[in-house]
């Protein structure tokens, strides 16, 4: 796992940061990883590792995106 270069302060994510999570999630969902390279790695975990955020944050942002289904985010969707 690569080290995270920036540590979050706990401040709410901006819409651009949330969109980055969505874009990474969409991209990585289409990549076919060999079974042996990531035997127990979930899509959420891969996105979290790539962006240096918590898996729960990825899940929360993706759930909010899917729930709204209008291309926008809730002002404060995740409270981690």
Structural descriptors:
single chain, disordered N terminus, mainly alpha, 0% strand, globular, 80 residues, 49% helix
Walkthrough of the structure:
This protein is an all-alpha fold and 80 residues long. It has 3 helices and no strands. The relative contact order is 0.18.
Low-confidence stretches: 1-5
User: Total domains, how many?
Assistant: 1
- Give the proportion of residues in helices: 40-55%
How far apart the termini lie comes to 22 Å
What is the count of DSSP helices, taking H or I runs of 4+ residues?
3
**What's the pLDDT, averaged over the residues?**
81
Biggest β-sheet description: none
**Strand percentage:** under 5%
Structural class: mainly alpha
The radius of gyration is 13 Å
Globular, elongated, flat, extended or rod-shaped: what is the shape?
Answer: globular
Element order, helices and strands? HHH
Compute the number of strand runs.
0
Task: Please describe the topology of this protein.
Elements: H1 15-30, H2 43-51, H3 55-68
Helix pairs in contact: 1-2, 1-3, 2-3
Summed up:
Helix content is 49%, strand content 0%.
